[in-house]
Design a protein that fits this description.
Strand order of the largest sheet: 3-2-1-4-5-6-11
Number of helices: 9
Number of domains: 1
CATH class: Alpha Beta
Oligomer: single chain
Helix content: 25-40%
Order of helices and strands: EHEEHEHEHEEHEEEHEEHEHH
Number of strands: 13
Shape: globular
Bound molecules: nicotinamide-adenine-dinucleotide
Largest sheet: 7 strands, parallel
CATH superfamily: NAD(P)-binding Rossmann-like Domain
CATH architecture: 3-Layer(aba) Sandwich
Amino acid sequence: MTADNMRILITGGAGCLGSRLVEHYLPRGHEILVLDNFATGNREVVPDGIDGLTVVEGSIVDKALVDECFTDFQPTHVIHSAAAYKDPDDWASDAATNVTGSIHVARAAEATGVKRLINFQTALTYGRPDTVPIPVDAPLRPFTSYGISKTAGEQFMMMGKVPTVSLRLANIAGPRLAIGPIPTFYTRLKAGKPCFCSDTVRDFLDMTDFMSVMDIVLHDDAPTGIFNISTGEGKSIKNVFDAIAGYLNVDPGDVPIEPPGADDVPAVVLDPIETERVLGWSAKIDFEETIKRMLEWYDEHGVSAIHSHLKAGKTQVDG
Ligand SMILES: NC(=O)c1ccc[n+]([C@@H]2O[C@H](COP(=O)([O-])OP(=O)(O)OC[C@H]3O[C@@H](n4cnc5c(N)ncnc54)[C@H](O)[C@@H]3O)[C@@H](O)[C@H]2O)c1
């Protein structure tokens, strides 16, 4: 159960997770302000004319704009979902958004008396882990521009005076997911195109389970700190491939298994045991069901479909 009548400022609210959060919280009667520069998000998922939703186009790198949004909207809760990652060689843009932008959000939240701040973190913060599943207190060894900048951003966020929760997230599967092995195999297998699987292991989490942990951490009495959000179950990319081929009822024959690339991490599986103990949360949807739900969504909407569950002029319960 979340607090009543939240005023939620969502940075990156037009992105995959952010837009789903808008669709989850708006129909429950909360007011929302989305601040997004549409670098990777989509305007269409946060349309104009929705009751209770304000959309501001702009960057969290712009301190004056961030301060203005906080001062005007007076959020009670902040969900920091904006992140830059588009070009792995563009270190300056990643640092500007993921470090400086995060600082602007944390400081503005302090200045305006925000009750709670939720940050999202990538598993790349652990770099190449010594143990898998990766415990939440494992050493941080990021080695990419995205991972390094997100690590610094999280550390600044955790230094602030606002009660803060940072969720280190598994690969979340849900509406509008358009990157990674699931949409790639779905599209290629349907088109009869050849595929290969990298010899890597990942963890996948259903969007419903992500929403259930959000409902917990947004509560004013919930514990603060850093949590791994995952099923804790590692699945190979070949497992993903087989599940999709089975769903589509195609026999692709032998599929090549390729060694992981030099900048890839062979196994990333987050250990949620501390999260289960402290938050009382655990994932409920298993791997097979997660994949099935995702593929049913693609059957209905297509891959890369920009589809909003929000309708202008009124709010509706999650579709
Ligand atoms: N989706 C996952 O499975 C996953 C896994 C681990 C971590 N995360 C984290 O969750 C968050 C959301 O990820 P997502 O999958 O929704 O990605 P996304 O790219 O769909 O969303 C990010 C949003 O941030 C916006 N943005 C980028 N730079 C901005 C800036 N300077 N100012 C304002 N807005 C800006 C983008 O336009 C986009 O709408 C990110 O912090 C990401 O690191 C996501």
